[in-house]
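BUG-206 | component: ligand-complex export | severity: low

The export step for cytidine-5'-monophosphate jobs runs without errors, but we want the raw record kept on the ticket for reference. Input record follows.
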Amino acid sequence: MIIAIDGPAASGKGTLGKRLAHHYGYRHLDTGVIYRAVAYALMQSGHDLRDEAAAVQAALELDPEKFGNPALKTQAAGEGASIVSAIPRVREVLLNFQRQFAAGPPGAVLDGRDIGTVICPDADVKIFVVADPKVRARRRTMEARARGEEADEAAVLADIIQRDERDKNRSIAPLKPAADAYLLDNSQLDIEGGVRAAIDIIEAVR
Ligand code: C5P
């Protein structure tokens, strides 16, 4: 069983993915972390984020052991991820890693932007998570502050809108719901409510 969860920045898809994986005893991959790790590697080595050769090299050298690095959660890494993720060769290099993860037993939950459309077009269930941009900005700001970072809600909102635009309008694997995805709007839901709504969808189709 493969559960594909896609959606825009800070829509809650990561938390939802983690919770669903726990509920079903499946493995979970937050695919945004992969692009964040590539961007972070370039930032650390002083490369331009649009340097295709360096980005491809960083993607080839990806080390999943480092996915837990808190530096990957920052705004800067997210913004960088949205730049490197628009490079077709980078996406190509990272495709197999994601597909292999999805294929292993006992089942997997992957969340990202193109899981239902490109990575796992045959996923058993596809959920596209949306939420009002202002709600997303508020949640992201609170999370950043909880980590001890300074965060200005208006700036976070501007970043979210800019990132969504870039992700939606890129030529390769743009952010969009798969034709057979279920839409889940969690603007008015808390985490538990979102998890329950997703489980209802999954139970109805499996
Ligand atoms: O979800 P997260 O905020 O961690 O994603 C960071 C960036 O990585 C996104 O803005 C998007 O550009 C890119 N990404 C992607 N495809 C995915 C996951 C993330 O292009 N499957």
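Assignee comment: Attached the raw record above. The chain has a mean pLDDT of 96.
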